[in-house]
């Protein structure tokens, strides 16, 4: 495919077009992914998550600067929860990371959260495959939702960084949402403000209480002031350490396999649902069932069960 060849030459427009094809679920997207998949296995996927306005984009921008000094090639995918409503992309993120967009070795894009939940994670995973095949060294995935939230795509990341900030009355709430389970590293950003130590102590206490759960690893807590680029080197070091542990740590190896399985599960379920519905929607049985439901002869739940029973005895 011409577009894949262009992308492999580093043409950012072509990369963007392939991702657009994936977002729109075009047939050509599958072809591109099939071509690109064997080239993957290079990138380190880092999820950066946390409440709105906590400084995720600012932190990523500072991390890009640090990584570029080493010559690393960096990708950023910003998952935009608002686009489901507006169909647009986050402007703030583009502005925040703007100084990097002209760098040929930095690729930044928002992923529109159109369609189903499975759609968001599949699109994101597709984009990750594209960037991985193009040998981006580190790919950041910025997302607002975490833990049990519906925007949770932490299973796509090798490492998940949870960003917290001081002065958040609802810090506890945020942690309840499953962050303790998914965090590989906590970053307390806006440490230029007072109360940062309070957040660190609070997190520390929460981690102490976590002992006894199935998770063995204890995430570190690092304070940053991303706007002033303070504490960034510590984050880079933590990322480096984690990345090297991924190859040998049995817990991380097992987790990676679970993530891969979840991705296959998600594609398979979506495909199955699509196929079943295609078969049903052209059958007389569906039309008959609809009339029965409309006439209150059968409820929709029983109707769905009966339809499926017919297809999958
Ligand atoms: N004081 C202070 N402000 C910061 C720091 N880092 C980021 N900010 C500010 O916090 C605001 C939000 O920063 P963003 O980087 O857009 O935060 P975000 O988490 O990406 O926000 P969303 O993508 O909208 O969820 C901006 O006004 C930043 O300038 C910091 O270390 N200290
Ligand atoms: Mg942001």
Report the bound ligands by name, code or SMILES. Answer: guanosine-5'-triphosphate, magnesium ion
Distance between the termini: 42 Å
Largest sheet: 7 strands, parallel
Tally of individual helices: 13
Range of helix content: 40-55%
The fraction of residues assigned to DSSP E strands is 5-15%
Residue windows where pLDDT falls under 50 for at least 5 positions = 83-89
Explain how this protein is built:
By secondary structure, the protein is α/β, with parallel strands linked by helices. 53% of the residues lie in helices and 13% in strands. The protein contains 13 helices and seven strands. The protein has helices spanning 2-8, 12-23, 27-36, 56-69, 83-86, 91-96, 117-133, 171-182, 196-210, 232-245, 250-281, 284-294, 300-311; strands spanning 44-49, 74-80, 106-112, 138-143, 159-164, 185-188, 220-223. It has a seven-stranded parallel β-sheet with strand order 3-2-4-1-5-6-7, with helices on both faces. Helix 2 runs antiparallel to helix 7 and helix 7 packs across helix 11 (250-281). It starts with a helix and ends with a helix. Bound molecules: guanosine-5'-triphosphate and magnesium ion. The site of guanosine-5'-triphosphate has 18 residues, from helix 4 and helix 6.
């Amino acid at each position: 495919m011409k577009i894949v060849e262009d992308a492999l030459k580093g043409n950012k427009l072509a990369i963007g077009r392939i991702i657009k094809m994936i977002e729109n679920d075009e047939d050509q997207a599958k072809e591109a992914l099939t071509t690109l998949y064997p080239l993957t296995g290079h990138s380190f996927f880092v999820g950066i998550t946390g409440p709105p306005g906590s400084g995720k984009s600012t932190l990523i921008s500072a991390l890009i600067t640090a990584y570029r000094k080493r010559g690393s090639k960096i990708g950023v995918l910003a998952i935009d929860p608002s686009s489901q409503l507006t169909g647009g992309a986050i402007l703030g993120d583009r502005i925040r990371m703007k100084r990097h967009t002209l760098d040929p070795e930095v690729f930044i894009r928002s992923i529109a959260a159109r369609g189903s939940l499975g759609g968001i994670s599949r699109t994101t995973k597709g984009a990750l495959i594209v960037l991985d095949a193009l040998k981006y060294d580190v790919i950041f995935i910025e997302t607002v939702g975490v833990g049990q939230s519906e925007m949770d795509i932490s299973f796509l990341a090798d490492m998940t960084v949870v960003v917290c900030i001081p002065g958040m009355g609802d810090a506890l709430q945020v942690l309840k949402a499953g962050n303790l389970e998914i965090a590989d590293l906590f970053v307390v950003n806006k440490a230029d403000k007072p109360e940062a130590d309070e957040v660190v102590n609070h997190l520390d206490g929460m981690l102490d209480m976590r002992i006894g759960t199935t998770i063995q690893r204890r995430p570190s807590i690092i304070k940053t002031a991303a706007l002033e680029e303070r504490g960034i080197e510590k984050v880079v070091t933590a990322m480096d350490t984690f990345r090297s542990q991924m190859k040998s740590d049995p817990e991380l190896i097992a987790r990676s396999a679970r993530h891969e399985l979840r991705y296959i599960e998600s594609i398979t379920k979506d495909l199955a649902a699509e196929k079943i519905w295609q078969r049903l929607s052209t059958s007389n049985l569906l039309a008959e069932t609809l009339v029965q439901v409309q006439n209150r002869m059968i409820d929709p739940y029983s109707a769905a069960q009966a339809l499926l029973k017919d297809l999958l005895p």
